[in-house]
Automatic annotation (TrEMBL), chain A:
It comes from Bradyrhizobium huanghuaihaiense. This is Transport permease protein. It is a multi-pass membrane protein. Coiled coil: none annotated. GO terms for cellular component: ATP-binding cassette (ABC) transporter complex.
Automatic annotation (TrEMBL), chain B:
Involved in beta-(1-->2)glucan export. Transmembrane domains (TMD) form a pore in the inner membrane and the ATP-binding domain (NBD) is responsible for energy generation. This is ABC-2 type transport system ATP-binding protein. One of its GO terms (molecular function) is ATP binding. InterPro entries: AAA+_ATPase, ABC_transporter-like_ATP-bd, ABC_transporter-like_CS, ABC_transporter_ATP-binding, P-loop_NTPase. Keywords: ATP-binding, Nucleotide-binding, Transport. The lineage of its organism: Bacteria, Pseudomonadati, Pseudomonadota, Alphaproteobacteria, Hyphomicrobiales. Residues 5-234 form the ABC transporter domain.
Amino acid sequence: MNHRAIRAIYLFEMARTWRTLLQSIVSPVVSTSLYFVVFGAAIGSRISQVEGVSYGTFIVPGLIMLSVLTQSIANASFGIYFPKFTGTIYEILSAPISYFEIVLGYVGAAATKSIILGLIILATAGLFVPLHIHHPIWMLTFLVLTAVTFSLFGFIIGIWADGFEKLQMIPMLVVTPLTFLGGSFYSIDMLPAGWRTVALLNPVVYLISGFRWSFYEIADVSVSVSMGMTVAFLVACLAVIWWIFRTGYRLKN
Amino acid sequence: MSSIISVANLSKTYGSGFKALKNVNLDIKRGEIFALLGPNGAGKTTLISIICGIANPSEGKVLVGGENIQTSYRKARSLIGLVPQELHTDAFESVWATVSFSRGLFGKPKNPDHIEKVLKDLSLWDKKDNKIITLSGGMKRRVMIAKALSHEPQVLFLDEPTAGVDVELRKGMWEVVRTLQQSGVTIILTTHYIEEAEEMADRIGVINKGEIVLVEDKATLMQKLGKKRLTVHLQGKVTSLPESLAHYELDLCDNGATLVYDYDTKGERTGITSLLSDLRTAGIRFNDLDTTQSSLEDIFVDLVRTS
Protein backbone atom coordinates (compact mmCIF):
# COMPACT_ATOMS: atom_id res chain seq x y z
CA MET A 1 0.00 0.00 0.00
CA ASN A 2 1.44 3.37 -1.07
CA HIS A 3 0.15 5.23 1.99
CA ARG A 4 2.28 8.29 1.23
CA ALA A 5 0.56 8.69 -2.14
CA ILE A 6 -2.91 8.37 -0.55
CA ARG A 7 -1.88 10.96 2.03
CA ALA A 8 -0.52 13.27 -0.70
CA ILE A 9 -3.77 13.14 -2.72
CA TYR A 10 -5.91 13.46 0.41
CA LEU A 11 -4.01 16.48 1.75
CA PHE A 12 -3.88 18.09 -1.69
CA GLU A 13 -7.66 17.82 -2.01
CA MET A 14 -8.23 19.05 1.54
CA ALA A 15 -5.92 22.00 0.86
CA ARG A 16 -8.23 22.97 -1.99
CA THR A 17 -11.12 23.11 0.49
CA TRP A 18 -9.28 25.49 2.79
CA ARG A 19 -8.30 27.63 -0.19
CA THR A 20 -11.94 27.86 -1.27
CA LEU A 21 -13.43 28.02 2.20
CA LEU A 22 -16.16 30.42 1.21
CA GLN A 23 -17.41 28.20 -1.59
CA SER A 24 -16.85 24.87 0.19
CA ILE A 25 -18.19 25.50 3.69
CA VAL A 26 -19.65 28.98 4.19
CA SER A 27 -21.92 28.93 1.15
CA PRO A 28 -23.77 25.64 2.01
CA VAL A 29 -24.14 26.75 5.64
CA VAL A 30 -25.70 30.06 4.59
CA SER A 31 -28.13 28.30 2.20
CA THR A 32 -29.14 25.82 4.91
CA SER A 33 -29.75 28.66 7.35
CA LEU A 34 -32.01 30.24 4.74
CA TYR A 35 -33.95 26.97 4.46
CA PHE A 36 -34.52 27.15 8.21
CA VAL A 37 -35.75 30.71 7.97
CA VAL A 38 -38.09 29.95 5.03
CA PHE A 39 -39.29 26.42 5.81
CA GLY A 40 -38.77 26.27 9.54
CA ALA A 41 -39.88 29.72 10.66
CA ALA A 42 -42.09 31.18 7.92
CA ILE A 43 -43.89 28.06 6.59
CA GLY A 44 -43.21 25.75 9.54
CA SER A 45 -45.05 28.04 11.94
CA ARG A 46 -48.27 27.27 10.01
CA ILE A 47 -47.69 23.47 9.97
CA SER A 48 -48.60 21.42 12.97
CA GLN A 49 -46.22 18.73 14.21
CA VAL A 50 -45.15 15.89 11.91
CA GLU A 51 -45.38 12.51 13.67
CA GLY A 52 -44.94 14.19 17.05
CA VAL A 53 -41.97 16.39 16.04
CA SER A 54 -42.14 20.13 15.33
CA TYR A 55 -41.76 20.89 11.62
CA GLY A 56 -38.56 22.90 12.08
CA THR A 57 -36.95 19.99 13.92
CA PHE A 58 -38.38 17.43 11.48
CA ILE A 59 -36.60 18.90 8.46
CA VAL A 60 -33.11 18.96 10.06
CA PRO A 61 -32.00 15.43 8.92
CA GLY A 62 -33.38 16.06 5.43
CA LEU A 63 -31.51 19.36 5.15
CA ILE A 64 -28.27 17.76 6.29
CA MET A 65 -28.73 14.94 3.77
CA LEU A 66 -29.51 17.44 1.02
CA SER A 67 -26.17 19.16 1.61
CA VAL A 68 -24.19 15.96 2.16
CA LEU A 69 -25.51 14.38 -1.07
CA THR A 70 -24.95 17.39 -3.28
CA GLN A 71 -21.60 18.38 -1.76
CA SER A 72 -20.22 14.81 -1.83
CA ILE A 73 -20.99 14.60 -5.53
CA ALA A 74 -19.69 18.11 -6.22
CA ASN A 75 -16.45 17.62 -4.26
CA ALA A 76 -15.56 14.22 -5.69
CA SER A 77 -16.61 14.93 -9.28
CA PHE A 78 -14.67 18.20 -9.36
CA GLY A 79 -11.71 16.61 -7.55
CA ILE A 80 -11.10 14.07 -10.32
CA TYR A 81 -12.48 16.10 -13.24
CA PHE A 82 -10.19 19.08 -12.65
CA PRO A 83 -6.92 17.11 -13.10
CA LYS A 84 -8.45 15.64 -16.26
CA PHE A 85 -9.35 19.14 -17.45
CA THR A 86 -5.95 20.67 -16.67
CA GLY A 87 -4.02 17.56 -17.76
CA THR A 88 -2.34 16.99 -14.39
CA ILE A 89 -3.99 13.55 -14.31
CA TYR A 90 -0.87 12.32 -16.16
CA GLU A 91 1.01 12.42 -12.89
CA ILE A 92 -1.57 10.34 -11.03
CA LEU A 93 -1.68 7.76 -13.82
CA SER A 94 2.11 7.49 -14.04
CA ALA A 95 2.66 7.23 -10.28
CA PRO A 96 3.27 3.88 -8.54
CA ILE A 97 -0.20 3.88 -7.05
CA SER A 98 -3.08 1.42 -7.39
CA TYR A 99 -6.58 2.37 -8.49
CA PHE A 100 -7.87 1.58 -5.02
CA GLU A 101 -5.39 4.04 -3.53
CA ILE A 102 -6.36 6.76 -6.02
CA VAL A 103 -10.04 6.31 -5.08
CA LEU A 104 -9.15 6.27 -1.39
CA GLY A 105 -7.35 9.62 -1.70
CA TYR A 106 -9.99 11.44 -3.75
CA VAL A 107 -13.13 9.90 -2.28
CA GLY A 108 -11.71 10.03 1.25
CA ALA A 109 -11.12 13.79 0.93
CA ALA A 110 -14.51 14.45 -0.70
CA ALA A 111 -16.33 12.42 1.97
CA THR A 112 -14.38 14.11 4.78
CA LYS A 113 -15.40 17.52 3.50
CA SER A 114 -19.10 16.66 3.30
CA ILE A 115 -19.06 14.99 6.72
CA ILE A 116 -17.51 18.14 8.21
CA LEU A 117 -20.13 20.15 6.38
CA GLY A 118 -22.96 17.90 7.63
CA LEU A 119 -21.77 18.33 11.21
CA ILE A 120 -21.49 22.11 10.79
CA ILE A 121 -25.05 22.22 9.45
CA LEU A 122 -26.17 20.07 12.38
CA ALA A 123 -24.56 22.55 14.79
CA THR A 124 -26.13 25.46 12.87
CA ALA A 125 -29.55 23.77 13.07
CA GLY A 126 -29.08 23.52 16.84
CA LEU A 127 -29.13 27.32 16.92
CA PHE A 128 -32.59 27.41 15.31
CA VAL A 129 -34.46 24.40 16.75
CA PRO A 130 -34.13 22.08 19.76
CA LEU A 131 -32.43 18.83 18.72
CA HIS A 132 -32.13 15.43 20.33
CA ILE A 133 -30.37 12.56 18.56
CA HIS A 134 -31.74 9.19 19.74
CA HIS A 135 -29.10 7.05 18.02
CA PRO A 136 -25.89 9.11 17.54
CA ILE A 137 -23.85 6.08 16.41
CA TRP A 138 -26.41 5.22 13.73
CA MET A 139 -26.62 8.88 12.79
CA LEU A 140 -22.87 8.97 12.21
CA THR A 141 -22.98 5.61 10.39
CA PHE A 142 -25.64 6.87 7.96
CA LEU A 143 -23.77 10.16 7.55
CA VAL A 144 -20.45 8.48 6.76
CA LEU A 145 -21.97 5.82 4.50
CA THR A 146 -23.96 8.37 2.54
CA ALA A 147 -20.97 10.72 2.22
CA VAL A 148 -18.73 7.89 1.00
CA THR A 149 -21.34 6.43 -1.36
CA PHE A 150 -22.18 9.74 -3.01
CA SER A 151 -18.53 10.73 -3.19
CA LEU A 152 -17.98 7.49 -5.13
CA PHE A 153 -20.92 8.43 -7.32
CA GLY A 154 -19.39 11.89 -7.82
CA PHE A 155 -16.04 10.28 -8.71
CA ILE A 156 -17.83 8.30 -11.46
CA ILE A 157 -19.47 11.49 -12.78
CA GLY A 158 -16.09 13.25 -12.74
CA ILE A 159 -14.53 10.47 -14.83
CA TRP A 160 -17.49 10.30 -17.20
CA ALA A 161 -17.80 14.05 -17.75
CA ASP A 162 -15.90 15.49 -20.69
CA GLY A 163 -17.05 19.06 -20.09
CA PHE A 164 -18.21 21.31 -17.27
CA GLU A 165 -21.79 21.06 -18.52
CA LYS A 166 -21.86 17.29 -18.05
CA LEU A 167 -20.25 17.72 -14.65
CA GLN A 168 -23.25 19.77 -13.54
CA MET A 169 -25.91 17.85 -15.43
CA ILE A 170 -26.52 14.83 -13.20
CA PRO A 171 -26.27 16.71 -9.88
CA MET A 172 -28.64 19.42 -11.10
CA LEU A 173 -31.09 17.42 -13.19
CA VAL A 174 -31.20 14.16 -11.26
CA VAL A 175 -29.79 14.35 -7.75
CA THR A 176 -31.28 17.66 -6.56
CA PRO A 177 -34.84 16.83 -7.73
CA LEU A 178 -34.60 13.33 -6.21
CA THR A 179 -33.42 14.86 -2.93
CA PHE A 180 -36.23 17.41 -2.85
CA LEU A 181 -38.75 14.70 -3.72
CA GLY A 182 -37.13 12.23 -1.33
CA GLY A 183 -38.78 13.57 1.81
CA SER A 184 -36.27 16.22 2.84
CA PHE A 185 -39.07 18.55 3.83
CA TYR A 186 -41.95 16.13 4.46
CA SER A 187 -42.82 12.60 5.41
CA ILE A 188 -43.88 10.54 2.41
CA ASP A 189 -46.85 9.44 4.55
CA MET A 190 -48.14 12.93 3.87
CA LEU A 191 -48.42 12.08 0.13
CA PRO A 192 -51.53 10.55 -1.54
CA ALA A 193 -51.36 6.73 -1.75
CA GLY A 194 -50.41 6.64 -5.48
CA TRP A 195 -47.59 9.16 -5.12
CA ARG A 196 -46.35 7.37 -2.03
CA THR A 197 -45.74 4.27 -4.16
CA VAL A 198 -43.94 6.38 -6.75
CA ALA A 199 -41.83 8.01 -4.01
CA LEU A 200 -40.64 4.58 -2.88
CA LEU A 201 -38.86 4.22 -6.23
CA ASN A 202 -36.65 7.16 -5.24
CA PRO A 203 -33.48 5.84 -3.57
CA VAL A 204 -32.97 9.09 -1.66
CA VAL A 205 -36.15 8.37 0.33
CA TYR A 206 -34.36 5.45 2.01
CA LEU A 207 -31.30 7.52 2.90
CA ILE A 208 -33.30 10.37 4.44
CA SER A 209 -35.69 7.99 6.19
CA GLY A 210 -32.88 6.04 7.85
CA PHE A 211 -31.03 9.19 8.80
CA ARG A 212 -34.21 10.75 10.27
CA TRP A 213 -34.88 7.56 12.23
CA SER A 214 -31.47 7.91 13.93
CA PHE A 215 -32.59 11.37 15.13
CA TYR A 216 -36.26 10.89 16.13
CA GLU A 217 -37.04 7.18 15.72
CA ILE A 218 -39.58 8.01 13.02
CA ALA A 219 -39.13 6.56 9.53
CA ASP A 220 -40.99 6.21 6.23
CA VAL A 221 -39.48 2.76 5.65
CA SER A 222 -37.79 0.23 7.91
CA VAL A 223 -34.27 1.10 9.04
CA SER A 224 -32.86 -2.20 7.80
CA VAL A 225 -34.26 -1.48 4.32
CA SER A 226 -32.68 2.01 4.46
CA MET A 227 -29.32 0.55 5.42
CA GLY A 228 -29.64 -2.18 2.77
CA MET A 229 -30.37 0.36 0.03
CA THR A 230 -27.44 2.56 1.07
CA VAL A 231 -25.04 -0.39 1.06
CA ALA A 232 -26.45 -1.61 -2.25
CA PHE A 233 -25.78 1.78 -3.86
CA LEU A 234 -22.28 1.80 -2.35
CA VAL A 235 -21.54 -1.63 -3.84
CA ALA A 236 -22.94 -0.55 -7.22
CA CYS A 237 -20.67 2.54 -7.27
CA LEU A 238 -17.65 0.43 -6.31
CA ALA A 239 -18.44 -2.01 -9.12
CA VAL A 240 -18.62 0.81 -11.69
CA ILE A 241 -15.31 2.29 -10.45
CA TRP A 242 -13.66 -1.12 -10.62
CA TRP A 243 -14.82 -1.40 -14.23
CA ILE A 244 -13.60 2.14 -15.06
CA PHE A 245 -10.08 1.38 -13.85
CA ARG A 246 -10.00 -2.09 -15.35
CA THR A 247 -10.87 -0.77 -18.79
CA GLY A 248 -9.19 2.66 -18.48
CA TYR A 249 -12.52 4.25 -19.50
CA ARG A 250 -11.97 7.96 -20.27
CA LEU A 251 -8.63 7.81 -18.46
CA LYS A 252 -6.17 5.70 -20.38
CA ASN A 253 -7.42 5.68 -23.95
CA MET B 1 25.98 -1.25 -21.21
CA SER B 2 22.84 -2.93 -19.79
CA SER B 3 19.32 -1.92 -20.83
CA ILE B 4 17.22 0.07 -18.40
CA ILE B 5 14.19 0.00 -20.69
CA SER B 6 13.30 -2.87 -22.93
CA VAL B 7 10.32 -2.62 -25.29
CA ALA B 8 9.31 -5.81 -27.11
CA ASN B 9 6.72 -6.22 -29.86
CA LEU B 10 4.73 -3.26 -28.60
CA SER B 11 1.60 -2.27 -30.50
CA LYS B 12 -1.15 0.21 -29.77
CA THR B 13 -4.44 0.45 -31.59
CA TYR B 14 -6.86 3.15 -30.47
CA GLY B 15 -10.61 2.66 -30.25
CA SER B 16 -11.02 4.46 -33.57
CA GLY B 17 -8.94 1.72 -35.22
CA PHE B 18 -5.90 3.98 -35.65
CA LYS B 19 -2.65 2.04 -35.19
CA ALA B 20 -0.36 4.39 -33.30
CA LEU B 21 2.41 1.82 -32.72
CA LYS B 22 3.22 -1.23 -34.82
CA ASN B 23 5.36 -3.95 -33.29
CA VAL B 24 7.92 -1.62 -31.73
CA ASN B 25 11.16 -3.08 -30.35
CA LEU B 26 13.56 -0.79 -28.53
CA ASP B 27 16.25 -0.98 -25.86
CA ILE B 28 17.43 2.06 -23.92
CA LYS B 29 20.87 1.73 -22.34
CA ARG B 30 21.45 2.70 -18.74
CA GLY B 31 22.93 6.19 -18.39
CA GLU B 32 22.56 7.31 -22.00
CA ILE B 33 20.71 10.23 -23.54
CA PHE B 34 18.44 8.76 -26.18
CA ALA B 35 16.69 11.06 -28.63
CA LEU B 36 13.50 9.83 -30.24
CA LEU B 37 12.80 11.71 -33.43
CA GLY B 38 9.75 11.60 -35.59
CA PRO B 39 7.28 13.82 -37.38
CA ASN B 40 3.96 14.81 -35.79
CA GLY B 41 1.72 11.82 -35.15
CA ALA B 42 4.60 9.33 -35.56
CA GLY B 43 3.84 7.66 -32.20
CA LYS B 44 6.48 9.26 -29.94
CA THR B 45 4.08 10.42 -27.22
CA THR B 46 2.06 7.20 -27.40
CA LEU B 47 5.23 5.16 -26.84
CA ILE B 48 6.21 7.31 -23.84
CA SER B 49 2.67 7.22 -22.46
CA ILE B 50 2.61 3.43 -22.52
CA ILE B 51 6.02 3.08 -20.85
CA CYS B 52 4.95 5.54 -18.12
CA GLY B 53 1.55 3.92 -17.51
CA ILE B 54 -0.67 6.66 -18.93
CA ALA B 55 -1.95 4.54 -21.82
CA ASN B 56 -2.58 0.81 -22.04
CA PRO B 57 -0.68 -1.19 -24.67
CA SER B 58 -2.69 -3.34 -27.09
CA GLU B 59 0.11 -5.92 -27.40
CA GLY B 60 3.69 -6.40 -26.32
CA LYS B 61 5.84 -6.10 -23.24
CA VAL B 62 7.79 -3.29 -21.60
CA LEU B 63 10.40 -3.73 -18.87
CA VAL B 64 11.79 -0.80 -16.87
CA GLY B 65 14.78 -1.70 -14.71
CA GLY B 66 13.84 -5.34 -15.33
CA GLU B 67 10.31 -4.79 -13.95
CA ASN B 68 7.23 -5.37 -16.11
CA ILE B 69 5.22 -2.13 -16.39
CA GLN B 70 1.94 -4.01 -16.04
CA THR B 71 2.54 -6.82 -13.55
CA SER B 72 5.11 -4.97 -11.46
CA TYR B 73 3.95 -1.43 -12.11
CA ARG B 74 4.83 -0.03 -8.68
CA LYS B 75 8.51 -0.87 -8.99
CA ALA B 76 8.65 0.08 -12.68
CA ARG B 77 6.94 3.45 -12.32
CA SER B 78 8.91 4.47 -9.24
CA LEU B 79 12.03 4.46 -11.46
CA ILE B 80 10.52 6.89 -13.96
CA GLY B 81 10.13 10.65 -14.02
CA LEU B 82 8.00 12.14 -16.79
CA VAL B 83 7.94 15.67 -18.15
CA PRO B 84 5.06 15.75 -20.62
CA GLN B 85 4.85 17.91 -23.69
CA GLU B 86 2.04 20.14 -22.47
CA LEU B 87 2.43 22.43 -19.48
CA HIS B 88 0.05 20.65 -17.12
CA THR B 89 0.29 22.37 -13.76
CA ASP B 90 -1.83 23.06 -10.71
CA ALA B 91 -2.24 26.77 -11.30
CA PHE B 92 -3.12 27.75 -7.75
CA GLU B 93 -0.51 25.69 -5.89
CA SER B 94 2.87 27.03 -4.85
CA VAL B 95 6.00 25.64 -6.52
CA TRP B 96 7.13 24.04 -3.25
CA ALA B 97 3.73 22.40 -2.62
CA THR B 98 3.37 20.94 -6.09
CA VAL B 99 6.90 19.51 -6.17
CA SER B 100 6.46 18.05 -2.66
CA PHE B 101 3.12 16.58 -3.75
CA SER B 102 4.85 14.75 -6.61
CA ARG B 103 7.38 13.22 -4.22
CA GLY B 104 4.60 11.98 -1.93
CA LEU B 105 2.66 10.60 -4.89
CA PHE B 106 5.64 8.43 -5.80
CA GLY B 107 5.71 7.05 -2.25
CA LYS B 108 8.92 8.73 -1.15
CA PRO B 109 9.31 10.07 2.42
CA LYS B 110 9.53 13.83 2.88
CA ASN B 111 12.96 15.22 2.08
CA PRO B 112 13.02 19.02 2.07
CA ASP B 113 16.78 19.00 1.38
CA HIS B 114 16.28 17.12 -1.89
CA ILE B 115 13.40 19.37 -2.99
CA GLU B 116 15.57 22.40 -2.17
CA LYS B 117 18.44 21.00 -4.25
CA VAL B 118 16.16 20.28 -7.23
CA LEU B 119 14.65 23.77 -7.09
CA LYS B 120 18.08 25.39 -6.79
CA ASP B 121 19.47 23.31 -9.69
CA LEU B 122 16.59 24.51 -11.84
CA SER B 123 16.89 28.14 -10.70
CA LEU B 124 13.47 28.01 -9.07
CA TRP B 125 14.46 28.45 -5.44
CA ASP B 126 13.49 32.12 -5.24
CA LYS B 127 10.08 31.22 -6.71
CA LYS B 128 9.34 28.38 -4.30
CA ASP B 129 6.45 30.20 -2.59
CA ASN B 130 4.99 31.65 -5.79
CA LYS B 131 1.76 30.29 -7.20
CA ILE B 132 2.41 28.50 -10.48
CA ILE B 133 -0.10 30.68 -12.30
CA THR B 134 2.22 33.67 -11.76
CA LEU B 135 5.22 32.01 -13.46
CA SER B 136 6.39 32.42 -17.04
CA GLY B 137 6.16 29.56 -19.55
CA GLY B 138 9.85 28.73 -19.19
CA MET B 139 9.59 28.60 -15.42
CA LYS B 140 6.50 26.39 -15.61
CA ARG B 141 8.49 24.03 -17.82
CA ARG B 142 11.19 23.90 -15.14
CA VAL B 143 8.55 23.25 -12.47
CA MET B 144 7.46 20.24 -14.53
CA ILE B 145 11.05 19.00 -14.58
CA ALA B 146 11.34 19.62 -10.82
CA LYS B 147 8.19 17.54 -10.24
CA ALA B 148 9.61 14.73 -12.34
CA LEU B 149 12.90 14.82 -10.41
CA SER B 150 11.27 15.12 -6.97
CA HIS B 151 11.26 11.37 -6.39
CA GLU B 152 14.83 10.77 -7.60
CA PRO B 153 14.03 8.77 -10.75
CA GLN B 154 16.58 6.65 -12.62
CA VAL B 155 14.95 7.37 -15.97
CA LEU B 156 13.70 10.76 -17.10
CA PHE B 157 11.37 11.19 -20.06
CA LEU B 158 11.42 14.64 -21.61
CA ASP B 159 8.68 14.96 -24.18
CA GLU B 160 9.50 18.01 -26.30
CA PRO B 161 11.21 19.76 -23.36
CA THR B 162 12.15 22.91 -25.21
CA ALA B 163 9.02 23.42 -27.31
CA GLY B 164 8.21 27.12 -27.28
CA VAL B 165 11.23 27.94 -25.14
CA ASP B 166 13.59 30.76 -26.14
CA VAL B 167 17.15 30.04 -27.26
CA GLU B 168 18.83 31.04 -24.02
CA LEU B 169 16.52 28.97 -21.88
CA ARG B 170 16.86 26.05 -24.28
CA LYS B 171 20.61 26.05 -23.79
CA GLY B 172 20.06 26.28 -20.04
CA MET B 173 17.85 23.19 -20.26
CA TRP B 174 20.53 21.33 -22.18
CA GLU B 175 22.92 22.08 -19.35
CA VAL B 176 20.43 20.70 -16.83
CA VAL B 177 20.03 17.54 -18.91
CA ARG B 178 23.78 17.02 -19.16
CA THR B 179 24.16 17.46 -15.40
CA LEU B 180 21.41 14.92 -14.83
CA GLN B 181 23.14 12.44 -17.10
CA GLN B 182 26.37 12.92 -15.18
CA SER B 183 24.48 12.07 -11.98
CA GLY B 184 23.54 8.72 -13.55
CA VAL B 185 20.02 9.45 -14.82
CA THR B 186 19.05 7.88 -18.16
CA ILE B 187 17.31 10.43 -20.37
CA ILE B 188 14.87 9.81 -23.16
CA LEU B 189 14.17 12.90 -25.17
CA THR B 190 11.66 13.52 -27.90
CA THR B 191 12.11 16.61 -29.93
CA HIS B 192 11.24 18.41 -33.10
CA TYR B 193 14.48 20.38 -32.89
CA ILE B 194 16.96 18.19 -34.69
CA GLU B 195 19.79 20.38 -33.48
CA GLU B 196 18.73 19.47 -29.96
CA ALA B 197 19.20 15.77 -30.68
CA GLU B 198 22.44 16.48 -32.51
CA GLU B 199 23.70 18.48 -29.54
CA MET B 200 22.52 16.21 -26.73
CA ALA B 201 22.00 12.60 -27.72
CA ASP B 202 24.29 9.61 -27.46
CA ARG B 203 21.94 7.53 -29.57
CA ILE B 204 19.12 8.40 -31.88
CA GLY B 205 15.95 6.52 -32.74
CA VAL B 206 13.67 7.55 -35.58
CA ILE B 207 10.01 6.62 -35.47
CA ASN B 208 7.59 7.12 -38.32
CA LYS B 209 3.99 5.98 -38.74
CA GLY B 210 4.22 3.92 -35.55
CA GLU B 211 7.34 2.01 -36.57
CA ILE B 212 10.93 2.37 -35.44
CA VAL B 213 12.78 3.15 -38.63
CA LEU B 214 16.27 3.26 -37.20
CA VAL B 215 18.24 3.21 -33.95
CA GLU B 216 21.89 4.15 -34.10
CA ASP B 217 24.73 5.86 -32.23
CA LYS B 218 24.60 9.49 -33.21
CA ALA B 219 28.21 9.56 -34.40
CA THR B 220 27.81 6.33 -36.40
CA LEU B 221 24.59 7.59 -37.87
CA MET B 222 26.19 10.81 -38.97
CA GLN B 223 29.11 8.90 -40.44
CA LYS B 224 27.05 6.17 -42.05
CA LEU B 225 24.37 8.27 -43.60
CA GLY B 226 26.10 11.61 -43.76
CA LYS B 227 26.92 13.14 -47.09
CA LYS B 228 29.37 15.93 -47.59
CA ARG B 229 28.98 18.96 -49.74
CA LEU B 230 31.76 20.69 -51.62
CA THR B 231 31.14 24.33 -52.49
CA VAL B 232 33.37 25.84 -55.18
CA HIS B 233 33.52 29.63 -55.20
CA LEU B 234 34.19 30.74 -58.79
CA GLN B 235 36.32 33.68 -59.85
CA GLY B 236 33.70 34.84 -62.30
CA LYS B 237 30.02 34.11 -62.85
CA VAL B 238 29.10 31.19 -65.10
CA THR B 239 25.77 30.98 -66.92
CA SER B 240 25.95 27.32 -67.97
CA LEU B 241 28.17 24.33 -67.47
CA PRO B 242 29.89 22.37 -70.26
CA GLU B 243 28.66 18.87 -71.15
CA SER B 244 31.92 17.38 -69.85
CA LEU B 245 30.83 18.18 -66.26
CA ALA B 246 27.28 16.83 -66.54
CA HIS B 247 28.03 13.52 -64.80
CA TYR B 248 29.01 15.35 -61.58
CA GLU B 249 25.37 16.60 -61.21
CA LEU B 250 26.58 20.01 -60.11
CA ASP B 251 24.27 22.76 -58.95
CA LEU B 252 24.98 26.27 -60.09
CA CYS B 253 24.09 28.65 -57.26
CA ASP B 254 24.28 32.33 -56.34
CA ASN B 255 23.56 33.44 -59.90
CA GLY B 256 26.44 31.35 -61.20
CA ALA B 257 28.97 32.43 -58.55
CA THR B 258 29.25 29.03 -56.83
CA LEU B 259 29.14 25.38 -57.78
CA VAL B 260 27.79 22.81 -55.36
CA TYR B 261 28.85 19.17 -55.46
CA ASP B 262 27.38 16.49 -53.15
CA TYR B 263 29.51 13.41 -52.54
CA ASP B 264 29.39 10.30 -50.41
CA THR B 265 32.12 9.88 -47.80
CA LYS B 266 31.55 6.10 -47.85
CA GLY B 267 32.29 5.87 -51.58
CA GLU B 268 35.56 4.47 -52.87
CA ARG B 269 36.19 7.73 -54.63
CA THR B 270 34.76 11.05 -53.73
CA GLY B 271 35.34 12.43 -57.23
CA ILE B 272 36.78 15.67 -55.88
CA THR B 273 40.19 15.36 -57.53
CA SER B 274 38.76 14.62 -60.98
CA LEU B 275 36.15 17.39 -60.60
CA LEU B 276 38.80 19.98 -59.85
CA SER B 277 40.89 18.73 -62.77
CA ASP B 278 37.89 18.80 -65.15
CA LEU B 279 37.01 22.34 -64.00
CA ARG B 280 40.51 23.49 -64.89
CA THR B 281 40.26 21.74 -68.29
CA ALA B 282 36.95 23.45 -68.94
CA GLY B 283 38.54 26.80 -68.15
CA ILE B 284 36.46 27.44 -65.05
CA ARG B 285 38.60 29.16 -62.43
CA PHE B 286 37.88 29.26 -58.74
CA ASN B 287 39.33 31.10 -55.77
CA ASP B 288 38.01 29.12 -52.79
CA LEU B 289 36.60 25.75 -51.69
CA ASP B 290 34.75 24.60 -48.61
CA THR B 291 33.12 21.38 -47.46
CA THR B 292 30.23 20.82 -45.04
CA GLN B 293 28.85 17.68 -43.36
CA SER B 294 25.12 17.09 -43.89
CA SER B 295 23.20 17.73 -40.71
CA LEU B 296 21.11 15.29 -38.73
CA GLU B 297 18.12 17.19 -40.01
CA ASP B 298 18.99 16.23 -43.60
CA ILE B 299 19.42 12.61 -42.53
CA PHE B 300 16.12 12.68 -40.65
CA VAL B 301 14.19 14.16 -43.55
CA ASP B 302 15.70 11.53 -45.89
CA LEU B 303 14.80 8.70 -43.55
CA VAL B 304 11.23 9.82 -43.02
CA ARG B 305 10.76 10.33 -46.72
CA THR B 306 12.07 6.90 -47.67
CA SER B 307 10.15 5.08 -44.91
